[in-house]
């Protein structure tokens, strides 16, 4: 079976990548499976820089091709925050529930029409001695008033995708994986790889 190494420790992302790649019969290997995988500091100023840091560090260290995912939530009423700080918005160590509380608190006075947001996913592919390439995907929606739903991860319980009345965390995983920023980035990646 073919393998793909993904430079992430996020179990939610790993589950989604497993679902995406299962249709190609590709086994997903993550940093949780590698011994001595480092914690990579995300010191970049953009999603691209952080995605590159993660993919290139693991690619160099193990001399293999690596995919990484840097993603986050961009809220219009918060001037794009939490953005690249999505994972550590309420401080470190990362706490999804605390991040959600902080966002809902900051939006408490913001009316319905101004609660627009989007998820972004930037994928980087690093190959030893090659230039890193990037693919991007978005998913637009609005931010709800309370957390609802048990599926997914991160900000899913407060994100209502456009065209839906439920939060992303209420959708079955197969449904999220048809419309998500991650799915849209994977589609760009497939287009990019197969058109060359
Ligand atoms: O589909 C999603 N549904 C809900 N929330 C999401 C999603 N996708 C990203 N997010 C949030 C979670 C985290 O707060 C941040 C990603 O931060 P990000 O640094 O890319 O990932 P991470 O630190 O969790 O794992 P890692 O860096 O090991 O890949 O955006
Ligand atoms: Mg991270």
TrEMBL record:
Gene3D superfamilies, per database record: 3.90.950.10
Q: What is written in the cofactor note of this entry?
A: Binds 1 Mg(2+) ion per subunit.
Give the GO biological process terms.
nucleotide metabolic process; purine nucleoside triphosphate catabolic process
GO MF annotation: an example: dITP diphosphatase activity
Q: What is the catalytic activity of this protein?
A: dITP + H2O = dIMP + diphosphate + H(+); ITP + H2O = IMP + diphosphate + H(+); XTP + H2O = XMP + diphosphate + H(+)
The task this protein performs is described as:
Pyrophosphatase that catalyzes the hydrolysis of nucleoside triphosphates to their monophosphate derivatives, with a high preference for the non-canonical purine nucleotides XTP (xanthosine triphosphate), dITP (deoxyinosine triphosphate) and ITP. Seems to function as a house-cleaning enzyme that removes non-canonical purine nucleotides from the nucleotide pool, thus preventing their incorporation into DNA/RNA and avoiding chromosomal lesions.
Tell me the protein family, please.
Belongs to the HAM1 NTPase family.
Q: What is this protein called?
A: dITP/XTP pyrophosphatase
Source organism per entry reads: Oceanobacillus arenosus
């Amino acid at each position: 079976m073919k393998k793909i190494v993904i430079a992430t420790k996020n179990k939610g992302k790993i589950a989604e990548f497993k679902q995406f790649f299962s249709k190609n019969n590709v086994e997903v290997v993550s940093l949780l499976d590698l011994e001595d995988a480092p914690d990579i500091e995300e010191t970049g100023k953009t999603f691209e820089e952080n995605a590159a840091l993660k993919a290139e560090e693991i690619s160099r260290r193990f001399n293999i091709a690596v995919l990484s995912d840097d993603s986050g939530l961009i809220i219009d009423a918060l001037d794009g925050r939490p953005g690249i700080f999505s994972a550590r918005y309420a401080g470190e160590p990362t706490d999804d529930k605390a991040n959600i509380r902080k966002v809902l608190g900051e939006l408490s006075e913001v009316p319905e029409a101004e609660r627009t947001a989007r998820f972004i996913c930037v994928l980087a592919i690093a190959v030893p001695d090659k230039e890193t390439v990037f693919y991007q995907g978005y998913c637009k929606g609005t931010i709800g008033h309370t957390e609802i739903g048990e599926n997914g991860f991160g900000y899913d319980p407060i994100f209502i995708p456009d065209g839906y009345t439920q939060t992303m965390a209420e959708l079955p995983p197969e449904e999220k994986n048809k419309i998500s920023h991650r799915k849209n980035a994977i589609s760009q990646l497939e287009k990019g790889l197969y058109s060359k």
